[in-house]
Request: fold
Amino acid sequence: MTADAPTPVRLGPSDAGEVLTLQRAAYVTEARAHDDLSLPPLTEELPAVREELGRASVTAWGVRDDRGRLGDAVTTVALFTGEHSAGNLRLYRRAGYVETHRTGAGTYELST
Reply:
């Protein structure tokens, strides 16, 4: 890490409100692209996010600025997006991500 880069911090239950706000903002375009406002990230409620962030099996990281890095301890980062989100799919491919599978989600598929 360089001195000017923020240090990633582990998120916990107290961060649930901010995570939920960001999650909903991020998925509005997904919902529109898939004509589906019932995507789980849009319908999930604060207690569920708080509970998930409190699970020992869940590790969530956050930074307050786009210059952050996760470091050598992180070996896998998994993303998902809808099959109609062409911009996201292109962005992920350019960043080096590889699609591993698709999962049915109603009338469309999620690419992981």
